[in-house]
Amino acid sequence: MRRRPPPEVGVAWLVGVARHKLADHWRRAEREQRGLRIVHGLPVEPEDPWDERLDAMIAQEVLAALGPHHRGALILRYLDGLPVPDVARLLGRTVHATEALLVRARKAFRENYERLEGRDV
């Protein structure tokens, strides 16, 4: 990004950033859960760690299969944690249009996730 002019940000770059952000999120969530289990005197290991990994793999596959506009909006809003007005600004949309986009993106993600979750993995 220090080059002049800065390189163009493309879908591949966004997907790479999303992968890293998603991995960071899972690590952070696992550390938090581990700490809560320790505090409450519960077993430190989850009952079935493969369930968590399968869920993560399905979520990653679903995210990758979404269209770039849905994927980008979801990544910015939920993985990067940006408020809707910032997402709108980055996507060059109005706040209202971005909210509508997020509704459609969440619906597409949920439908695809449920479809993939139901298949034999």
TrEMBL record:
Keyword Transcription regulation part of the UniProt annotation: yes
InterPro entries: RNA_pol_sigma-70-like, RNA_pol_sigma70_r4_t2, RNA_pol_sigma_r3/r4-like, WH-like_DNA-bd_sf
GO MF terms, alphabetically ordered: DNA binding; sigma factor activity
Pfam family membership, one: Sigma70_r4_2
Annotated GO biological process: DNA-templated transcription initiation
Residue intervals of the RNA polymerase sigma factor 70 region 4 type domain: 59-108
Keywords: DNA-binding, Sigma factor, Transcription, Transcription regulation
Family listed: Belongs to the sigma-70 factor family. ECF subfamily.
PANTHER family cross-referenced by the UniProt entry: RNA POLYMERASE ECF-TYPE SIGMA FACTO, RNA POLYMERASE SIGMA FACTOR HI_1459-RELATED
Protein name: RNA polymerase sigma-70 factor (ECF subfamily)
